[in-house]
Structures are given as C-alpha cells and as structure tokens.
C-alpha cells in the first residue's frame, strides 16, 4: 500500500505531465493518470492531435506502471469555454481560452472527477508552484522557477479551494531538467515537441477555424488620417498589434512627419465595431499602440482577496516581462468589481479581452479581463 494519498495527474501526452507523474510516483503517491479530451468537432483532421496524444499518454502510463483513464469533457468545454470564446470574438475582443479552460475544465471538471476517484490532490505539468502561507493560512500561486516557461499567467483564475488541491511538481524545475529526467527514465515522449497554439485549435490556421463559426462582415481599413487603404474581412479576425495578413503592404503612411517609409510595417491599432472599421498605423512605436493605463473587470484574485492599492507588477500578455504599475481597486459603471493599473512605462498593444495579471514579486495575486486601455493621443 502506498503511504501517501492518491493523486490524479492530467496526462496530456506531453513530456511535462509525464515527468509530473513520474516525480509523484517516486515520492510515494498513489498515482492515476487521466487523459482529458476537450474537443471533438473535427477529431480526424490533420490539426487535431488528440488521438496521437492519447497514444503517447498511454505509453507513458505503461512505462511508469500506472493506470490511465480517457475522460471526455468536450460537452463541458463547449458550454463553458468555447461559447464564451465565440461571444468575445463576435464582440470584437480577443479572449484567452486557455485561461478559461484552466479555471473551468482542468481545475473544475477534472478536479471533480478526480475527487470521485478518491484522490486528495490533482497534478498537472504546468510550470508554476503552490505554497501555503503559514501566516495567513492562504495558498499562494507562485511563478515557476524556469522564467522562460512560467505559466502562472494562465492559472491566475484558480481559487483557494482549487489551489489547495493542486500540485505542480515541474514548477520547481527548469525545462532542460525535465527533458533530462524524461530521457534518463526512458519515457517515449522525452523529445516530443511542445504543443503551441490555443488548446482546442492546435496548429491549424486560426482564420480558417474562426470562419466556421463567425460570419464575415468586410469593411474599410483606415489609417490615422481617415484614408481608406484596404478592406478587412471582418473585425473578429484581427487583434491589436497584428501586423501579418493585413493585405496593405507597400502602402505608405500619409504625411512625411509619420516617418513611415514604404517598408515600415503596418499594425492593427483600433477596431470600431459600430462603424465596422479597422484602424491601422505605421510603425511599432506609434502613439495609438501605447497605453499608460488600463481598466480590468471580471476579476479573479487567486490570493483569496483583493490586494491593497499600491505598487505591483503586471503582465498584459503571456510573453511579457513584468511591468511596474500602481494598482487601484474600483467599481465599474455596472457595479462590477474591477481594477485600474497605471504603468511606469507605456504598454504596447494592450488588448481588450486579454488578461491583466498582477504580481507581487514571485507571487501571482490574480487579475482580470482587460476592459479598456486608453492610448496616447496622436
């Protein structure tokens, strides 16, 4: 009999979750693997790798000598993640479904299932850490020790109950060490490439995917002078800061003062839903792409309570260094709780619908969905 309690590990088929299961088994836990199937609309497509991933996960379970169960959460996913994803895109915002998937599926549906299997904890291959603060009695979500792989940004919507039941073993390691362990113990996926892209879309062309679910409403592309320089295929298909796929290369900005030559790239800067107009600017540092502050709503504080107003750091997108800021808690016009961040330096292409996540050093406090981010005037 195992001396330590049962832990259910989310085995994705990747190397991180595989090493997670191995480390927990080495520590003496009673480990069971669960493979989560969250998407099944086009399971036979070249872009949907769930069948391959399950084969890899099962092979890992075989090597480690643990049970694995295939569980279908596709209905929950469609209802609680994908429907919200489409609503946000249709409203002209750019959501982050991976964050919602963690809060609603991996640490809710999956957690509930694991508890029914008699588990005391669940574990995933995320690069993050959980620590119990003895002084406050609260669980803290910490950054992973590998700064290049830290995934606390995607986990900021977890609540105290979820954090108390969760283990992140690889959060204590660097990715190179995880790969080394996998090679050493002969895991079949030791060299498997990391997955990229949105959880259910995989590597497929994003615009092609959205085409199936969102109707196209073409409209004008305009520069800051109001000149129409092209046509967009539908505002939902663009995000702030985007420079690829605009179809306006080679057009010069109007007026020499902008400094935009023929080869200076264009960027999406604004989306006017009412007038169905896409506004673009030339040059990465254009004032329309610089925001000194933002307001966020739909707040989730994984720290268990809202932080006191003051100096913190924040990320407005995943691949970004922490940006120093001042936080102020506030109530939105509709009475909903929110917060405002004022940054020490202007932030680039802050995008409504994405998440602003707040940190106090290595501790992730939580965050909210970006509601607005006024830019510098031209």
UniProtKB/TrEMBL annotation:
GO MF annotation list: ATP binding; tRNA binding; tRNA-uridine 2-sulfurtransferase activity
BP term (GO), one: tRNA wobble position uridine thiolation
Name of protein: tRNA-specific 2-thiouridylase MnmA
HAMAP family: tRNA_thiouridyl_MnmA (MF_00144)
Taxonomy, superkingdom: Bacteria
Xref: InterPro entries: MnmA-like, MnmA-like_C, MnmA-like_central, MnmA-like_central_sf, Rossmann-like_a/b/a_fold
Pfam families, A to Z: tRNA_Me_trans, tRNA_Me_trans_C, tRNA_Me_trans_M
Site residues, Interaction with tRNA: 126, 354
First-listed, main subcellular location of the protein, grouped into a coarse class: cytoplasm
UniProt-annotated catalytic positions: 101 (nucleophile), 199 (cysteine persulfide intermediate)
Gene behind this protein: mnmA
Localization annotation: Cytoplasm
Entry's family note: Belongs to the MnmA/TRMU family.
PANTHER family listed in its UniProt record: MITOCHONDRIAL TRNA-SPECIFIC 2-THIOURIDYLASE 1 (PTHR11933:SF5), TRNA 5-METHYLAMINOMETHYL-2-THIOURIDYLATE -METHYLTRANSFERASE (PTHR11933)
UniProt EC number: 2.8.1.13
Role of this protein: Catalyzes the 2-thiolation of uridine at the wobble position (U34) of tRNA, leading to the formation of s(2)U34.
Boundaries of every tRNA-specific 2-thiouridylase MnmA-like C-terminal domain copy: 294-370
Species assigned in the record: Limnohabitans parvus II-B4
Keyword field contains tRNA processing: yes
Annotated GO CC locations: cytoplasm
Catalytic EC class: transferase
Record keywords: ATP-binding, Cytoplasm, Disulfide bond, Nucleotide-binding, RNA-binding, Transferase, tRNA processing, tRNA-binding
Binding of ATP, residues: 10-17, 36, 125
Catalytic activity from the UniProt record: S-sulfanyl-L-cysteinyl-[protein] + uridine(34) in tRNA + AH2 + ATP = 2-thiouridine(34) in tRNA + L-cysteinyl-[protein] + A + AMP + diphosphate + H(+)
Chain intervals for the UniProt region annotation (Interaction with tRNA): 149-151, 317-318
Region (Interaction with target base in tRNA): 96-98
tRNA-specific 2-thiouridylase MnmA-like central domain ranges (all copies): 207-282
